[in-house]
Prior knowledge:
By secondary structure, the protein is mainly alpha-helical. Helix content is about 80%, strand content about 0%. The chain has a two-stranded antiparallel sheet with strand order 1-2. Helix 2 packs antiparallel against helix 8 (about 200-235), helix 5 packs antiparallel against helix 11 (about 265-290) and helix 6 (about 130-150) runs parallel beside helix 11.
Amino acid sequence: MTSRQRIILAxxxxxTVAAGVMHYAxxxxxxxxxxxxxxxxxxxWIVAFSTEALGERFGPGMTGFLQSTxxxxxxxxxxxFAINAGxxxxxxxxxxxxxxxxxxxxxxxxxxxxxxxxxxxIMRFSARLPNDTMTLLMLAVFxxxxxxxxxxxxxxxxxxxxxxxxxxxxxxxxxxxxxLSSYLRGDSxxxxxxxxxxxxxxLSAGLLAAAGVGAAFVSDWFIAALGPAIDxxxxxxxxxxLVIVAIAGNAVENxxxxxxxxxxxxxxxxxxVKNSVAQIAVFLFPALILVSxxxxxxxxxxxxxxxxxxxxxxxxxxWQITGDGEARAYEGxxxxxxxxxxxxxxxxx
Length: 349
């Protein structure tokens, strides 16, 4: 590790501590918001650095899985806090926003960056993970669409949304476990650097774990400071959950994917984004539904029709663009445009 990298680690650590002190000392929400946001960006750099170091030892599948798992910790805690506070709309739109922000905005930006450094202006990557991810995403969308149809038609099944959501969550988790086991066993694309890994395994794994846990706490402080700003600006809860909370909660893997794409590591960059989408759809969402059964307010798969349509159409668009294992910059721009449209709708909710 270079002296410059050690300095960055020290600065990020100091910034994280400062954000915590400001949060618990009741400092101005605006100041806390800024410091916590900078701390999140610094933690994102640590995750990106650690992920790249691990990528020298493991294949992109395992590395992307580890990174996205730790990167999704902030989202888990943010939604859990929202459920406990009775903010079910924020919790739901936050999860939907995470799927759309990662699958449209971040993937689009990653494709644009990757295409710029790719040969012939094309970002090339293994097609297996995108196709697998779309299968998992469509499975989650299937449950959401079915419950949405039952709810809108006032079908008898709509009165049992909690039970159906719980059973559907268990089914999704079982499928995710089966896919993850087969995917990681088949991930044999580990890189073998000519000069050996630049960072010891224990150090890179430790930094990745510490950054993931740190991001969970900093995200909580970030969201706590963001609340007063939302109220003072008159921003809708739907927009806050779909855009602001979703992007803030996923800042770690968002930055990581872009940095990896800029370095030409297409498979690892796509792995980070796609693993995050798959985890949110068939692990994080159903896991939170099951955990919410212990709270006074329960989370379900029943969503407003506009977000059901957004998820279904986005899944089709993502599969069409990434299913062949290559993408161009304009296709990334198309995904970003879709996210902007959905965000605009949420703004007027």
